[in-house]
């Protein structure tokens, strides 16, 4: 799938014994794409194949239920759905989850086909409270055969679901220090703070990187080529795992996961307003799979400017505890002094974040803390703007119920290159009365202090400024309601989302009229839910199979002057670099894809054009070598890269296609009001779960070629390869078994890939 922990298709269950005396087992769903094999030492790993198999006829109830109740279409996301559901229904030893538990368990699983309704309906049949749904079988004009069947299944589940047995030998597992030396990296897992300090002393600065959940480090390694030779896993250091409440503060170890922190905050939420504010953000922070492995310390040190968590910590006056690896000195620093901007922090290379201290309010004054976030979707989405507001109020007059601001903090994410506090605004509000007039003044002060314009990174500057002000108004209204003041009729601004459910309704029909057809399960449903459905990337490799990776243009409208493959050719397993000179037939694809070539021969018209293909003995080597190809470009004029550029250069298409009905110009002239503005729409990145992939097998038998590909357009794929190879079309056989999501993205954009790989396979005479 996505390879970055975003889609959940690779979800697996990790179990480990966390208390040898009590035998307590911790079960967590995680994203396999982010979990190094080294990180699961001492753990039991359950994959979708481990739950049950169609060959062994030992299917797990979660697999059966999702298969029979129509919860898959393309099936690519289904193994992840099964594992998230399995992790939820088996999470409690003696009881079943609620419908709310089940809905929240899917916050890290994306599906592009079903619209989620059949998945949720099928999953909720395991819920202990499904009878609370407003569902009645009656003669009303409603048809929902899917939900009818789901509801009937629900009454078959009354006892906890069986869990795959935990291996006895892992119950006695004692964590030990680990050092694993690989070809590119060395992996260390210390089990004490002293051992960690020694490792950081031995490998200071950029020589080593601390790893916890690996959620950001893996992303940087994969997409930004930020590699480090020594990786130090800090998951087993006891000093980083402490989580306690004292008389004057909360002590949160830097290695506490968000999942563990969330469960503890729920216990403490009625004792301190900080717990409630942080819980409000954590409801929609990341996903279940990410929260199960990511630590609060890692989130702080990554210093994201759009962090949801850091504004709450900053508003609460969080203090960080740092240890120096060289002299073991302990340093404390306020969180608002820790962030320097652009992901830089006030932390030396030899320092280690140990804990976060949250001071508890002991004043007799009224104290309020609240957090807010606006994102493009509710769950598992980066915030556009997040905010946390804290105010301490002192009562001025008992009779008039007037309050004075003693202290205040307004902290924001998404408004600058770091988490930022409006210090000037805060200072000017101290001593003022808590009134609407004061808040109106605060609006103006905020806009002046935190200024955004059309050149600000992230765009949407007017919207973000409005969000900042609207969050403050929500906070003001909340505080006034708490103080029992009447503000716009005491509106409750908190959002409470109910359990989702759907039923299809139809118009009233005569009794004699019947419905044709019935709901049938997908033919491959059981293969989907067991992970046994074969997509292109799952196909077993043939003998002598090679692996390729694309070399894409990073410039638009640029002439390629030189391609340097020296560094790439030194990668172990490198076989060949393939480009336009290797095309035996036609490199131009005008008859199928106008203005495109199999490989760029001279001028790259756009970013992402295929310049060449690196072919190696392994997939890892191919990707590594492709990143080492160096290309020298000559940028050409005119640089028409936007609509504005095109207008300036009078660069237009021919006759435009126009759809109109009636006299459009007259209607506009006669209109009482005309609203006019400019709408900018950027490019779209296709996201169809299964990435573009194909396998080409050449043969000396009558120049035949076998192509295995996930495409919506096998005919054009066949024709394109024949054209590029200069062979008759009847020599090309195109196999399409199934596609893991497409949505138009595999109609034509799968074709250039097929052509490039076919050229490489014919050149080398081996499957690629």
From TrEMBL:
Residues 1-51 form the 2Fe-2S ferredoxin-type domain. Its cofactor is [2Fe-2S] cluster; FAD; Mo-molybdopterin. PROSITE patterns: 2FE2S_FER_1, 2FE2S_FER_2, FAD_PCMH. SUPFAM superfamilies: 2Fe-2S ferredoxin-like, CO dehydrogenase flavoprotein C-terminal domain-like, CO dehydrogenase ISP C-domain like, CO dehydrogenase molybdoprotein N-domain-like, FAD-binding/transporter-associated domain-like, Molybdenum cofactor-binding domain. GO terms for molecular function: 2 iron, 2 sulfur cluster binding; FAD binding; iron ion binding; oxidoreductase activity. It comes from the Eukaryota. Belongs to the xanthine dehydrogenase family. Pfam families: Ald_Xan_dh_C (PF01315), CO_deh_flav_C (PF03450), FAD_binding_5 (PF00941), Fer2_2 (PF01799), MoCoBD_1 (PF02738). SMART domains: Ald_Xan_dh_C, CO_deh_flav_C. This is Xanthine dehydrogenase. Coiled coil: none annotated.
């Amino acid at each position: 799938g996505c390879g970055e922990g975003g889609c959940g298709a690779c979800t697996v269950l990790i179990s480990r014994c966390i208390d040898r005396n009590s035998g307590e087992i911790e079960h967590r769903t995680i994203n396999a794409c982010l979990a190094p094999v080294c990180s699961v030492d001492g753990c039991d790993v359950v994959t979708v194949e481990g739950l049950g198999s169609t060959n062994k006829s030992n299917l797990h109830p979660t697999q059966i239920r999702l298969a029979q109740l129509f919860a898959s279409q393309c099936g690519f996301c289904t193994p992840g759905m099964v594992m998230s559901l399995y992790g939820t229904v088996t999470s409690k030893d003696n009881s079943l989850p609620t419908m709310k538990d089940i809905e929240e368990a899917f916050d890290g699983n994306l599906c592009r086909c079903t619209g989620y309704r059949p998945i949720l309906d099928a999953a909720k049949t395991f819920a202990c409270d499904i009878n609370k749904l407003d569902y009645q079988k009656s003669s009303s004009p409603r048809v929902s055969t899917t939900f009818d069947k789901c509801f009937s299944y629900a009454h078959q589940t009354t006892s906890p679901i069986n869990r795959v047995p935990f291996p006895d030998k892992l119950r006695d597992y004692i964590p030990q220090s680990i050092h694993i030396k690989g070809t590119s990296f060395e992996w260390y897992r210390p089990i004490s703070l002293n051992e960690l300090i020694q490792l950081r002393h031995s490998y200071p600065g950029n020589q080593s990187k601390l790893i916890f959940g690996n959620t950001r480090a893996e992303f940087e390694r994969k997409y930004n080529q930020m590699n480090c030779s020594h990786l130090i896993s800090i998951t087993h250091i006891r000093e980083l795992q402490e989580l306690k409440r004292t008389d004057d503060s909360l002590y949160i170890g830097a290695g506490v996961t968000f999942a563990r922190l969330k469960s503890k905050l729920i216990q403490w939420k009625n004792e301190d307003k900080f717990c409630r504010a942080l819980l409000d953000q954590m409801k929609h922070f990341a996903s279940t799979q990410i929260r199960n492995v990511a630590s609060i310390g890692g989130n702080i040190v990554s210093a994201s400017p759009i962090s949801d968590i850091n504004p709450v910590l900053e508003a609460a006056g969080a203090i960080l505890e740092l240890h120096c690896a060289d002299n073991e000195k302990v340093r404390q620093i306020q969180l608002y002094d820790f962030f320097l901007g652009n992901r830089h922090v006030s932390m030396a290379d030899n320092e280690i974040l140990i804990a976060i201290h949250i001071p508890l309010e002991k004043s007799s004054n009224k104290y309020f803390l609240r957090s807010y976030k606006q994102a493009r979707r509710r769950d598992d989405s980066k915030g556009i703007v997040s905010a946390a507001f804290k105010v301490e109020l002192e009562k001025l007059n008992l009779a008039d119920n007037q309050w004075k601001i003693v202290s205040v903090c307004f902290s924001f994410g998404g408004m600058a290159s770091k988490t930022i506090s409006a210090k000037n605004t805060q200072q000017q509000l101290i001593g003022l009365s808590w009134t609407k007039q004061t808040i109106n003044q605060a609006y103006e002060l905020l806009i002046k202090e935190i200024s955004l314009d059309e050149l600000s990174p992230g765009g949407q500057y007017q919207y973000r400024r409005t969000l900042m002000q609207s969050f403050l108004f929500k906070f003001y209204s909340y505080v006034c309601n708490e103080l029992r003041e009447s503000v716009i009729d005491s509106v409750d601004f908190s959002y409470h989302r109910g359990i989702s459910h759907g039923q299809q309704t139809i118009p009233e029909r005569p009794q004699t009229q019947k419905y044709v057809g019935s709901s049938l399960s997908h033919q491959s449903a059981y293969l989907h839910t067991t992970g046994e459905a074969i997509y292109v990337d799952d196909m077993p490799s043939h003998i002598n199979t090679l692996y390729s990776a694309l070399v894409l243009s990073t410039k638009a409208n640029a002439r390629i002057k030189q391609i340097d493959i020296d560094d790439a050719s030194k990668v172990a397993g490198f076989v060949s670099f393939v480009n336009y000179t290797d095309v035996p037939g036609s490199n131009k694809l005008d008859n199928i894809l106008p203005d495109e070539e199999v490989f760029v021969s001279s001028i790259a018209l756009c970013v992402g054009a295929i310049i060449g293909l690196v072919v190696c003995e392994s997939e890892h080597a191919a990707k590594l070598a492709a990143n080492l190809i160096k290309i020298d470009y000559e940028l050409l004029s005119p640089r028409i890269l936007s609509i504005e550029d095109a207008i300036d250069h009078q660069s237009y298409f021919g006759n435009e296609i126009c759809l109109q009905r009636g006299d459009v110009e007259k209607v506009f002239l006669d209109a009482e009001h005309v609203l006019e503005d400019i709408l900018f729409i950027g490019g779209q990145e296709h996201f169809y779960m299964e990435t573009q992939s194909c396998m080409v097998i050449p043969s000396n038998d009558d120049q035949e070629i076998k192509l295995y590909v996930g495409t919506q357009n096998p005919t054009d794929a066949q024709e394109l390869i024949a054209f590029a190879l200069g062979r008759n079309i009847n020599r090309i056989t195109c196999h399409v078994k199934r596609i893991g999501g497409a949505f138009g993205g595999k109609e034509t954009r799968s074709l250039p890939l097929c052509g490039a790989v076919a050229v490489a396979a014919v050149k080398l005479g081996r499957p690629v």
